[in-house]
Specification:
The complex is a heterodimer of chains A (112) and B (113). By secondary structure, chain A is mainly beta. Chain A has no helices and eleven strands.
Amino acid sequence: GEDVEQSLFLSVREGDSSVINCTYTDSSSTYLYWYKQEPGAGLQLLTYIFSNMDMKQDQRLTVLLNKKDKHLSLRIADTQTGDSAIYFCAVLADSGNTPLVFGKGTRLSVIA
Amino acid sequence: DTAVSQTPKYLVTQMGNDKSIKCEQNLGHDTMYWYKQDSKKFLKIMFSYNNKELIINETVPNRFSPKSPDKAHLNLHINSLELGDSAVYFCASSQGVPAYEQYFGPGTRLTVT
């Protein structure tokens, strides 16, 4: 089955850029997502990208997809303390009833 | 105004008890899910219902029984609770299959003592 890997921790200074990386194993993964979870809260869908795209930009967020290497990244520009959270990568194969498969999440700590 | 809501938010109970968690969505979606997030934050699908029909049932003990009375509701009943059931349970919803955008509820933190 699909396996999604992320590094567990990332620490950056306020104002710097953050880059959170994710790798996946199933080349049929068609939709790739980034979710944010703040402490004690549910998951918030940040952005997603289709596998026929290389890049997607949405304000401070940039998603890059390297389909050949099965590598997805999320860049947060001008990182703020409010960006401190756990970021989950998730992938979905376009084959009907397959579920979203999540990585274990990357805990982003922003230092003021 | 809440899109996906769950009750209760916290649930503390003893081993062997039976408990239910309720989920409701007002987004008009036709697919609903239950996920379990363990103490290490690992998130895994448990069940999925599309138009009240079970479409995904991952390897979950049969002590867990989902029920979908209508498209807007998906409840989770757990019998004979065990210590290992302690986790945060998230409900989610989406429109269509495959689910391009899933929206999550705030979670129910279940603690079994």
